[in-house]
Amino acid sequence: MDPLPIPQTQPGRDGLAALLARPHTALIGLDFDGTLAPIVADPEQARAHPDAVPALAALAPRVASVAVITGRPPEVAVRYGGFAGVPGLEHLTVLGHYGAERWDAATGTVTAPPPHPGVAAARTELPRLLERAGAGEGTWIEEKGRALAVHTRRAADPQAAFESLRGPLADLAGRHGLIVEPGRLVLELRPPGMDKGVALLDHARAIGAGCVVYAGDDLGDLPAFAAVDKLRTDGIPGLLVCSGSTEVTELAERADLVVNGPEGVVDLLRTLAAQLG
Q: Which of 101, 141, 106 is closest to 122 using CA atoms?
């Protein structure tokens, strides 16, 4: 059995110790893209690391809850993750659209409120805006239902295209009551009040979590890190894990433990399952 990595901070070590001592109270929260699934040029081709589902299926029965928290629609994350119908994952929850939509493995159904009208309005204007901004070939729009994402990873100069669009997209979002969330060469327009921190806090409180682990890789995961910090101040231990990359360093600076991308996250999940077995 591989040894568990040691968190570099005392709060992180306390969080890991609480998980090992009281796994039946633990909530394991996980981002999808960049954390369970490697980042790829085409988000529609993203798939969970091949060892992610076996690791989750081994760990999930030993803890209170495993929740995948993602900006994607939950049914897409379920399909790309291969989460449906897996023994051991009967109580998995996918909180999609930053918690606005919920998929429960027990029922296989999605529950969701009505969509924000600003998304439809922005959707109509977005192609013309990209044309006026001279975003160039390789910049494209991902339709996410309750949100819209503009990707620049395929552009000739991805970072320059990303920076040139930040202002115009912020203006568009502001006109329609939306916000812009920057990520790894992607800018997402979505309604306010939807973030991974809110989703994580709500779920932790709903299940009465006694400790919380959250693993993410991108700027959109910072609210979830802040949520774990909030829970810590309330006396609930937590562990912050960064799925490390060279594209985003902010999470690594905030994390208690940095692992080597999705492969490192899967190794951590697998080792936790073995320790708790």
A: 141
What is d(CA 204, CA 26) in angstroms, rounded to the nearest whole number? 9
Residue 185 to residue 193: CA distance in whole angstroms = 22
Q: What is the pLDDT of residues 85-136, one digit of tens each?
A: 999 999 899 999 899 999 999 999 999 888 889 999 999 999 999 888 777 7
H-helix segments, the chain: 10-21, 52-59, 74-81, 117-132, 158-175, 196-207, 222-233, 250-254, 261-276
CA 109, 77, 247: angle at the middle one, nearest 5? Answer: 155
CA atoms lying within 13 Å on the CB side of residue 185: 24
Q: Counting beta carbons within 10 angstroms of the beta carbon of residue 224, is it exposed (0 to 12), middle (13 to 18) or buried (19 or more)?
A: buried
Structure tokens at 160: 């320059």
**Stated pTM of the model:** 0.81
Q: Which residues contact 209 (CB under 8 A, 6 or more apart)?
A: 25, 26, 27, 64, 65, 203, 231, 236
> Which residue in 63, 72, 86 sits closest to 31, CA to CA?
72
Q: How do strand 186-190 and strand 148-151 relate by DSSP bridges?
A: antiparallel
What is the DSSP track for 79-95? HHHT-TT-TT-TT-EEE
CA distances from 200 to 21, 197, 204, 239 (A): 22, 5, 6, 13
**Residues present in the chain in total:** 277
- 188 pairs with which residues across the strands? 149, 181
Q: Could you report the per-residue pLDDT of 155-173, keeping only the tens digit for each?
A: 889 999 999 999 999 999 9
